[in-house]
């Protein structure tokens, strides 16, 4: 069906762009969806005991959210382009809030798993809209600062997720225990849903088209076939059916690419416009986002394991060790907008290089100072956090800088999906290395070398990211 032009929605605010109060409302969704990816890990012991959940059920409680999120991001982005980015943001926020309430009240582990999957689907609807609205509403230095605030929201959710979860469970507010980590989303989500129509303006693609149902099915099943084995492989012992999933993903995703090209050639709107990848800033930016997130997700995994199993810290104690990392991240993020305005693509080069240095310092501390207190880790954590704060905010801004307004939410969906897939790949690959070195019967002495080797591997990958930024256009 040929596409026809339609007018975009009338703006509800002046053309000068969104204000900073509006930005806070917009980023509330980014914060809670990122937080829920990490916060659940600290609740596993109490959750397992309260709901009598076995290892498999716990795995799907954790992985169900990430699977649904990764599989739905590309579709969620295109739906925003077609039906309105503010509308999809509000639908996603409302659904995420409702699913969080169900998680917090879940009477059984089956209900909890279903609600976690619903959370992931809702997050997939709202996350691409945040980047799309930021990209459309902010320009110049304000754009750099807005993406810096976006990076800060992600960092606060990711870096402080374990600390926030540990504090909530320790406080045991109203006797809620582990349920408070989900119930805390409800007031935040309700406030954002109520304020969004007042403070955000609607935008959509100027081209109306029917949704690409075949493309949606191909990419959703294909991404699940990739991410599911990577997330569940190690814990399930890599059964043969997981390798069958990975093998099936190849024809599914190849078929998806071919289908998108045929739709574009026939004048019908594809789920992902192939011409997006013709721009070097976008194609290289997506690749760098994938590889950098590979190091981030796996770093949080091995750090948490080292602190809790290698150093014997509880959830709250381990969460407090994340504070120096978060402080370094916070300071660098506050500076990243101004630095990016001066350095452009080299801000990512700087950030990835500093992260590599921080990981190297951590590896040396873990092995050379293995009998020192955990306070010895603080300088390296500050350095690593600062590198993350410089690298994360400019990446989406540069990647989306050349994306047409008609495709900005779809482009955001692809970018975010690449980050989620990178996280799954990183956890799978680095997890294999870490546990292989750890051995079948790990002791406290076996954790430092496993941690150090994993960090060395991640540092090398971050050096590759730093060098890869040189492939970006100079004027990104």
Automatic annotation (TrEMBL):
Subcellular location, principal: membrane
Ranges where the Major facilitator superfamily (MFS) profile domain occurs: 22-476
Report one GO cellular component: plasma membrane
UniProt key word Transmembrane: yes
Extract the InterPro entries matched here: MFS (IPR011701), MFS_dom (IPR020846), MFS_trans_sf (IPR036259)
Q: Which UniProt keywords apply?
A: Membrane, Transmembrane, Transmembrane helix
Task: Indicate the transmembrane segments per the record.
Answer: 20-44, 56-76, 88-107, 113-134, 146-169, 181-200, 212-231, 237-258, 284-307, 313-331, 343-362, 374-400, 421-438, 450-472
- Cell compartments where the protein resides: Cell membrane
Membrane topology category: Multi-pass membrane protein
**In the UniProt record, does the keyword Transmembrane occur?**
yes
**What Pfam families does this protein map onto?**
MFS_1 (PF07690)
Name-wise, this protein is MFS transporter
Q: What is the organism of origin for this protein?
A: Actinocatenispora thailandica
